[in-house]
Specification:
The longest helix has 31 residues. The chain is built from 6 helices and 11 strands. Helix 3 packs across helix 4 and helix 4 crosses helix 6. It is globular and about 65 Å long. The chain has a 4-stranded mixed sheet with strand order 1-2-4-3, with helices on one face. A 4-stranded mixed sheet has the order 5-6-8-7, with helices on one face. A 3-stranded mixed sheet has the order 9-11-10, with helices on one face. With 232 residues, it is an alpha/beta fold. The two termini are 28 Å apart. It has 2 domains: 64 residues, no CATH class; 150 residues, Metalloproteases ("zincins"), catalytic domain (Zincin-like, 2-Layer Sandwich), CATH 3.30.2010.10.
């Protein structure tokens, strides 16, 4: 992977064995990436980027305009998101093992021993997010295996900085980003469907997007919501 520059915009260029150019702008800072077929040279990629400049700037502006939260300290009064909904964290000192409850559909109550560190509180919340995803994922995979006609041999959850999910086609294994626990359920479902469709078509080409249109006609709306809403 290397970079080209169009005006003041730096663009990552990744050459792959694909048929069509694919442009993406990623949160939180509007990083731009173009995946290009092996046969297309940098000048052609540059011309493609110039033709999409208005689209790129629009999406970068959306990210910049979003209200960014300060670094989380995992203390009472902070906002934390779960399944697309905002909750206020309520840190409660307690002698028992750490635990989390949602109260009145408004508060995320975190029970910790007195003197707990920021890192300890963060770890508890992340593990709670992980378990919540693990509770939701199996039913969604089972549902879409029947619809799409593929079998997922294995799946897992991990934090990823630039991707919502990945698919190992040979192993029929998908990985899902831990951050999806903060997103609405339909966004999680979209990512699962996206990765499962890769078991039918490896590349992001016309065939892949035709499958997406067939199985999940609203997928583009879910994708836009996922990428244009940043929950910290």
């Amino acid at each position: 992977m290397h970079q080209i520059k169009v005006g003041s915009i730096e663009i990552e260029v990744a050459r792959k064995d694909i048929k069509n150019l694919h442009l993406a702008v990623y949160p939180p800072n509007g990083r731009v990436r173009i995946a290009t077929p092996l046969r297309i040279n940098d000048e052609s990629v540059r011309l493609f980027a110039i033709s999409k400049l208005a689209w790129i700037k629009k999406h970068q502006a959306n990210f910049i305009a979003q209200n960014r939260q300060t670094e989380r300290e995992f203390i009472s009064g902070e906002s934390h998101y779960f399944k697309g909904k905002r909750y206020l964290l309520n840190l409660i000192e307690h002698k028992t093992s750490p635990k989390i409850f949602i109260r009145n559909n408004k508060y995320l109550e975190l029970y910790m021993k007195k003197g707990s560190s920021k890192q300890q509180r963060e770890k508890v919340i992340k593990e709670w997010y992980r378990q919540a995803l693990k509770n939701d994922i199996p039913a969604l995979i089972t549902k879409w295996q029947t619809i799409i006609g593929v079998v997922v041999a294995d799946w897992g959850v991990k934090f990823m900085r630039t991707k919502w999910g990945t698919c190992n086609i040979q192993a029929k294994r998908i990985w899902l980003n831990l951050e999806l626990a903060k997103k609405p359920r339909h966004c999680l479902e979209y990512v699962i469907v996206h990765e499962m469709v890769h078991l039918l078509e490896r590349h992001h080409n016309k065939r892949f997007f035709a499958y997406m249109d067939k199985f999940m006609p609203q997928w583009q709306l879910y994708k836009d919501e996922l990428n244009l809403t940043t929950y910290n």
